[in-house]
């Protein structure tokens, strides 16, 4: 990719903006307020370019693609990071519910996110043809959205994922090979694995709402698709998997991104004491 300063305004893509923001976050350790100010500056630049008819940059899609929220920035107040992932006790409860209620396509989407770590936009736009076999599939695209002048939000499929590293092949545990079989059996002629009755892909807010609803039914704290992705990343890091395997599965360019923004130590006190004993005993 060209240096940001060498890129013409009309050539800027949402991916460029996402990469720029992530790069600035890591290099300059931005606080939340500084991050919002930087986003505001970019938004103003893009709106100016649109008014002057220089370029029509989908900055809202770029902002939406950033898997970050205020909790990732605020280091001054205490926060319970265990609330950002499913615990070892909660995850089996959720998996058991989903595996016993696979008649709902939204539950299948939830299950696949939990066992693959995919971004919700990547799940939304997954095609049947992306599957290589029952336990492996290609990630080539994601959901994108923009708000028109009237305020209405439009959704579409973007033919590339969030970043170049997002183009990858993801594998799932062999015990969940049945997910692909179920999806194939449900196929009614459309190309999307997760589609509504009209054949359009399920939007991210539909899957997010389902996560909340299932958590409510199971009397668990509400968790989002991104929290499920954090849960997956934490499991990978705790498992001792190689850095290359982790970034391949997560679609990151650097394992430090996974460690800094996704890892949550959910081991209980007993497990931590055992680990300390092993290290210094």
Helical/strand content category? mainly alpha
Number of strands: 5
Order of secondary-structure elements: HHHHHHEEEEEHHHHHH
Let me know the largest β-sheet. Answer: 3 strands, antiparallel
Low-confidence stretches: none
Envelope shape: globular
Output the number of helix runs. 12
Radius of gyration over C-alpha positions, nearest whole angstrom: 20 Å
Order of the strands making up the biggest sheet? 1-2-5
Determine the mean pLDDT: 84
Helix content: 40-55%
N-C termini distance: 49 Å
Strand content: 5-15%
Descriptive keywords:
281 residues; mainly alpha; two-stranded antiparallel ribbon; 12 helices; 8% strand
Short structural summary:
The chain has helices at residues 14-28, 32-51, 59-65, 90-99, 105-116, 120-124, 178-186, 204-217, 225-239, 243-250, 255-261, 269-280, and strands at 131-133, 136-139, 142-147, 153-158, 168-171.
Report on this model:
- There is one protein chain.
- With 281 residues, the protein is mostly helical.
- The chain has helices spanning 14-28, 32-51, 59-65, 90-99, 105-116, 120-124, 178-186, 204-217, 225-239, 243-250, 255-261, 269-280, and strands at 131-133, 136-139, 142-147, 153-158, 168-171.
- The protein has a three-stranded antiparallel β-sheet with strand order 1-2-5.
- A hairpin with a 5-residue loop joins β3 (142-147) and β4.
- α1 packs across α3 (59-65).
- It is globular and about 55 Å long.
Q: Strands, helices and their partners?
A:
Layout: H1 14-28, H2 32-51, H3 59-65, H4 90-99, H5 105-116, H6 120-124, E1 131-133, E2 136-139, E3 142-147, E4 153-158, E5 168-171, H7 178-186, H8 204-217, H9 225-239, H10 243-250, H11 255-261, H12 269-280
């Amino acid at each position: 990719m060209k240096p940001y300063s060498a890129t013409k305004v009309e050539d800027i893509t949402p991916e460029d903006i996402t990469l720029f923001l992530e790069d600035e976050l890591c290099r300059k350790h931005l606080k939340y307020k500084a991050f919002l100010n930087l986003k505001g500056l970019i938004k103003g630049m893009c709106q100016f370019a649109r008014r002057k008819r220089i370029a029509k940059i989908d900055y809202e899609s770029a902002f939406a693609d950033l898997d970050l929220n205020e909790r990732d920035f605020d280091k001054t107040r205490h926060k319970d990071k265990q609330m950002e992932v499913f615990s070892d006790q909660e995850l089996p409860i959720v998996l058991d519910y989903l595996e016993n209620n696979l008649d709902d396509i939204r539950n299948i989407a939830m299950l696949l996110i939990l066992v693959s770590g995919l971004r919700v936009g990547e799940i939304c736009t997954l095609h049947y043809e992306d599957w290589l076999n029952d336990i492996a599939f290609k990630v080539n695209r994601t959901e994108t959205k923009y708000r028109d002048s009237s305020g209405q939000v439009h959704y579409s499929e973007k033919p590339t994922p969030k970043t170049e590293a997002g183009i990858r092949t993801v594998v799932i545990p062999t015990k969940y090979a049945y997910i692909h079989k179920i999806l194939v059996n449900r196929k009614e002629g459309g190309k999307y694995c997760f589609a509504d009755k009209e054949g359009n892909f399920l939007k991210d807010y539909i899957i997010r709402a389902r996560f909340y609803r299932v958590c409510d039914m199971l009397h668990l704290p509400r968790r989002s698709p991104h929290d499920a992705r954090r849960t997956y990343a934490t499991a990978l890091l705790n498992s001792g998997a190689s850095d290359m395997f982790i970034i391949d599965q997560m679609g990151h360019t650097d394992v430090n991104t996974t460690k800094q923004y996704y890892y949550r130590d959910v081991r209980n006190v007993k497990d931590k004491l055992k680990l300390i004993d092993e290290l210094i005993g």
